[in-house]
Amino acid sequence: MYLTYAEYLGYGGTMSEADFTMAEFKARKRIDRLTDSRVAGMDEAPEAVKVAMMTIIKADGVSGVEAQADAPLVAAFTTDGYSEHYGSAEDRHATLEKRLRAEIGRMLYGVVDDDGVPLLYRGI
Fold first, then answer.
1. Quick check: is 117 in a domain?
2. Phi/psi class of residue 84: alpha, beta or left (left: φ > 0; alpha: ψ in -120 to 50)?
3. Is 114 inside any structural domain?
4. Which of 11, 34, 61, 71 is surrounded by the most beta carbons within 10 Å?
5. Of 106, 101, 113, 102, which Cα lies nearest the Cα of 46?
6. Which helix (H) or strand (E) covers residue 14, if one does?
7. How far is the C-alpha of 4 from the C-alpha of 20, rounded, in Å?
């Protein structure tokens, strides 16, 4: 676990502990994918990782796949003849994922694991 429930609350989180457990798992897996699981081998997750986890959890709660199913994006709206067109959940998810990757990249840039290897190192 990279972010405890107590830390989550300390950063201003508001979801229940039960909901947090699933959200933390999903955010941790996203961090693992982007860092090649380097954080998993560390004694303690750096603060930058904890902040990135908060960003992921918050974004998924507002714009994640589950949130989109409950409140789909209105892509177009006409008032005269009242017409709504909903955007694709896949398009919205792809946009969110791209923005999250960029944001997480900025947050984790220069952060190294316990062996001094940058978390975002991809061997290139």
1. no
2. beta
3. no
4. 34
5. 113
6. none
7. 9
Contact yes or no for 11/50 (Cβ under 8 A)? yes
On the CB side of 50, CA atoms within 13 Å amount to: 15
Place of tokens 């508001």: 14
Please state whether the predicted TM-score (pTM) of the whole model is above 0.70.
yes
Domain, as residue range, for 46: 5-108
Q: For residues 76-95, b (16+ Cβ closer than 10 Å) or e, as one string?
A: eeeeeeeeeeeeebeebbee
Q: Mention every residue, 6+ apart, whose C-beta is less than 8 A from residue 68.
A: 89, 92, 93
Alpha-carbon distance of 117 to 105, in angstroms, equals: 15
